[in-house]
Amino acid sequence: MTTFPRPAEAEPCAANAAREGARLRRHWRELVRLALDASDVFTSAMLYPHAASADRKRLEGRMFGSRSDRLALAAFPHAPSVALARLATLAATDADVTLATRLARNAATPAEALQTLAAAFVMNRAEGETDYRRTVQRVAQLIARHPLAPPALLATLAASADSIETLRSLCENVGVQTDLLAQLAGRGIEPLQRLLAIHFATDAHTRHQLWRSTRESAVRAQVLRHAACPLELLRSIPASSPERRSLALNVRTTGEILTALARDDDPAVRRAAATNPATPAGALVLLCFDADTLVRRAVAVRDDLPLKVVDWLAEDGDVWVRSGLARNRACPRIWLDRLARDREADVRRSVTRHALCPAPLLVLLANDEVAWVRAGVALRNELPGAVLHRLIQDTDIDVLAGVARHRGTPQATLSRLAEHASPDVRRAVILNRHTHRRVLLPLRDESYPLHRVLVFMHPSLTDADRWRMRFEPDTEARARMFGHLAGSLAAALDRQRQHSAPADAADTPDTRTHQLTTSVEEAG
């Protein structure tokens, strides 16, 4: 049976909700005021997606009022997509090719903005002075390379491109579709072939076509290296060293071929074979005695080493071979014990980074004479209590930074480290997700803007704590903080509006959008 609150009970709830709504709207108004008064436009831009009606117009006047502000905002990497889309419209309207160039270069510029720029500057053949045409051509190249450019736009650019630079940019775009790459390969343009061979989306048929159409060793090497390389190309050993190296890197190469490549005269080819997980164990035995130290180092970091190979590498004269082995899961306990007492500090440090390093060795290495080794112990996620207590007494900055990030460090110790003279130690306290709120509060006044942003985003802080940081003096830090505050306020206003909406109101996306818009309009 549904129970309805009596009027005497409902009135205090309604009053509390009204007071909370008034507080939220008051905070929103203050954010808008501070943003409009700021010396930069970035803060206004971070409020822009959450504003509506009168507030949005006021923010637009601040953001887009001068060309210098437009140019600054177009290059801002954290600018909201809605602000960048509006800038693209202004660039098209004013034929501002400099603004268009900055927008096309910004990785955050959304797809619709790129389409606006392409329609205004690229699809229409540029007329005018040589410098202007060159700049428009640059816009085309940047759009062609942009990771957010939609496939249809890239296809249009490919069809209308009149310069090799634009086609090259298309081949470098990570979002280009397989069919478009096949079309570009069909044109037979030599400067594009290597880029097409490198691209991960190029299919096996296109790679086979590239192989047949070129004798360029660099192109063929990229074809052989790719995961989509046709299998028939992996069954013979080519003549050129770059091609053999790529063949040795391909995990689909047969064990027989890899064994032959492990004996190659070129050490770069042998190094490639040493890194390939498909290389047979018999070839690894040969490679662990290779005269080239880089080959032996490549073998030492493999996690599939036979025990006998570990025995040989553990006595290698090269410090980086032993160091790589000391971090390797394939290194057994018996050799970890020996390497933990190695004469080289870098090897002992690597033992501390071994995933299964036993507790007795951590106790030993926590007392190492070299601070860099002790710091390696401090960086481990799991530490025996006695080891952590020993490291807390250390005075080295690297060691204390590791202690400050450890989840088992007492809060009293974190509070002391939060006052350390080294910014590295203080930053480590902030990065510790287990640091309590009372330890973090004094760090809101840190001298480094990055530290203040990290404190602001720490999960231990409350919304009230973050609100008190609204007077942040650094431009970029303030923008990021205001973006978070504005999003939180908009979400709170939306929730309150939904809570106070009539019970029979449909909770549809359109309804929620209208409620949020109305709430933000009231906040203005």
Major beta-sheet overview: none
Distance between the first and last residues' Cα: 42 Å
Q: How confident is the prediction overall: mean pLDDT?
A: 90
Radius of gyration: 31 Å
- Unreliable stretches covering 5 or more consecutive residues: 503-524
Find the count of extended strands (DSSP E, 2+ residues).
0
Derived from helix and strand composition plus strand pairing, the structural class reads mainly alpha
Description of the structure:
- This protein is mostly helical and 524 residues long.
- The chain has a domain at 288-357.
- The protein contains 34 helices and no strands.
- The radius of gyration is 31 Å and the shape is flat.
- The model is unreliable at 503-524 (pLDDT under 50).
Secondary-structure map:
Layout: H1 7-37, H2 42-47, H3 53-64, H4 67-74, H5 81-94, H6 97-105, H7 111-122, H8 130-145, H9 151-160, H10 164-172, H11 178-186, H12 190-198, H13 204-213, H14 217-225, H15 241-249, H16 255-261, H17 267-275, H18 281-287, H19 293-300, H20 307-313, H21 319-326, H22 333-339, H23 345-352, H24 359-365, H25 371-378, H26 385-392, H27 397-405, H28 411-417, H29 423-431, H30 437-440, H31 449-456, H32 463-467, H33 475-500, H34 509-523
Biased composition (Polar residues): 514-524
Region (Disordered): 493-524
Protein name: Leucine rich repeat variant
